[in-house]
Amino acid sequence: MNEEQRRRQEAGQRQEKDYSQYFQTTYEPPSLKQAKKRGKEDVEIHYDFDIPEGMKNIGEGRKFLIRTYGCQMNEHDSENMAGILMRMGFTSTVDTEEADVILINTCAIRENAENKVFGEIGHLKQMKLDNPEKIIGVCGCMSQEEAVVNRILSKHPHVDLIFGTHNIHRLPELIQNAIFSKEMVIEVWSKEGDIIENMPRARKGKIQGWVNIMYGCDKFCTYCIVPYTRGKERSRRPEDIIEEVRHLARNGYKEITLLGQNVNAYGKDLADIDYGLGDLMEEIRKIDIPRVRFTTSHPRDFDDHLISVLAEGGNLVEHIHLPVQSGSSDVLKLMSRKYTRESYIELANKIKQAIPHASFTTDIIVGFPNETEEQFEETLSLVKEMEYDSAFTYIYSPRDGTPAAKMEDNVPHEVKKQRLARLNAIVNELSAEKNKACEGQVVEVLVEGESKKNPDILSGRTRTNRLVNFAAPKSAVGTLVHVEITEAKTWSLNGRVVEPAEVK
Ligand code: 5AD
Ligand code: SF4
Predict the structure, then answer these.
(1) Measured from the CA of 73, which atom of ligand 2 is nearest?
(2) Which of 391, 421, 436 delimits the end of a domain?
């Protein structure tokens, strides 16, 4: 038997192994029930991240690939993982065949996100059989669910490593274990969460950067899995955030997005200081970086101080992403959103008054259990009243372990699909109208790169987050230009550069 045959045989044997025998030593399983608990313990902040001696060269001559699903938080986590792997000597690749380590950073928010991941895990099976030394890891929000871990254990034993959202900093040890052990390594912490500062980071771009300001969520909307997968709300210290933003500014970044599952709750958990998102934005306003965004907001915690700071403009852009989820106060109550249709509109009007040119975007769920036609129509009428620039719209997806998943539901899936289509038709109509109104205007655009459809065209975004396509030399990438809008499409704008002269 040659070396290759021996490896295949070993991999084959692994498929049949009973993993329960390893649970004692390498199996630290998740528990959504445990993850739900919120205690009074202080959040620990760790500033001492380091790659342990002996693990710094594990990646020499090896390549990694991280496939990321889900939100910006996940994208940013992947940047941290890439940073750690690079410090261990790995280099990155986009070729699955070539990768020695493949990490799938997963999203648990809806069933279809999970299905995609299981599809991908399935596809990797043959590759693992052909090349048993490849390490396949699953991480991110899905790993925090026991049902997912059990399914991987029983149906996908070619996976080598499962870890969660709270122990990314343990990647060196986990990768080492996965490389040297024949067992599936599973380490998922179902805790409230700590804060790990100074993890290495390989940022994807040099123009736009993400900055975490807080982690976790304590809102427990009845449909949402995030409070279970991401732990309790915990804010980074303002000085650590400000230092990171300054560092990005010094390194030529043009735009930062402050990230959190519920950024408006920023600071509430900082026991020693009375400090909120408004205070933080006030500080960040003074930093020499052209654009600052933040996401995601919860209407409940959007306070007057924040509105007044945002109204001062400067580098704080006039784009507010304000998820509403439903236009019916009854549905909002069942969702436990803790605001009503009326109070949402009142807040939005207050923001519009303070920031007249603000663009508004939102998230909407249709087909929440037992949503009536009338309640759905309230969502339609709210969308029209709000005149959103755009909206992310979803069919409700039951998530195991959440309260809504236990509700009986009398709305057929077909009706939910029709509601989504009806909603999207209105959202698109509004987007097209809003874009049409931009024709003839001159707008500031941060040039991000080649347009996805045509490499001869560059594209970028306005302060209000509208996508603009225009002809310009590649040297304009990463700069701010002024573009006259010549043509509006439903989801984008076409234009021509009017300033600066060298880019025209
Ligand atoms: N089903 C459908 N959509 C959901 N979202 C969150 N949980 C669910 C779910 N169970 C949507 C919300 C949220 C966005 C990120 O995803 O609209 O704002
Ligand atoms: Fe998906 Fe939420 Fe996890 Fe982001 S935090 S990856 S949206 S489940």
Answers:
(1) 4
(2) 436
Q: Which ligand is nearest to the CA of 69?
A: 2
152 and 10 in one domain? yes
In ligand 1, the atom with minimum distance to the C-alpha of 404 is: 10
The range of the structural domain enclosing residue 498 comes to 442-502
Q: Examine the domain organization and report whether 77 and 176 are in the same domain.
A: yes
Are residue 228 and residue 278 in the same domain, yes or no? yes
Nearest by Cα to 393 from 338, 464, 325: 325
For residue 112, being part of any structural domain is answered with yes
141 lines ligand 1 (CB under 6 A): no
CA of 114 to the centre of ligand 2 (A): 11
Distance of CA 52 to the CA centre of its chain: 29
The domain total for the chain is 3
Residue 448 CA to ligand 2 center (angstroms) comes to: 25
Per-position pLDDT tens, the chain of length 504: 555 445 444 544 444 444 444 333 456 788 888 888 887 777 889 998 999 888 889 999 999 999 999 999 999 999 999 999 999 999 999 999 999 999 999 999 999 999 999 999 999 999 999 999 999 999 999 999 999 999 999 999 999 999 999 999 999 999 999 998 878 999 999 888 899 999 999 999 999 999 999 999 999 999 999 999 999 999 999 999 999 999 999 999 999 999 999 999 999 999 999 999 999 999 999 999 999 999 999 999 899 999 999 999 999 999 999 999 999 999 999 999 999 999 999 999 999 999 999 999 999 999 999 999 999 999 999 999 999 999 999 999 999 999 999 999 999 999 999 999 999 999 999 999 999 999 999 999 999 999 988 888 999 999 999 999 999 999 999 999 999 999 999 999 999 999 887 777
Integer Cα distance of 210 and 57 in angstroms: 28
**193: in domain:** no
Mutation to probe ligand 2, out of 67, 68, 73, 105 (largest number of atoms < 8 A from CB): 73
DSSP of 241-278, one letter per residue? HHHHHHHHHHTT--EEEEE-TTGGGTTTT-TT----HH
CA distance 492 to 484: 13
Radius of gyration of the chain (CA): 24
Find the 114 Cα to ligand 1 centroid distance in Å: 13
- Cβ–ligand 1 distance for 363 under 6 Å, the answer yes
**Letter for the amino acid at 266?**
Y
Instruction: Give the torsion sign (CA, 466, 469, 471, 477).
Output: positive
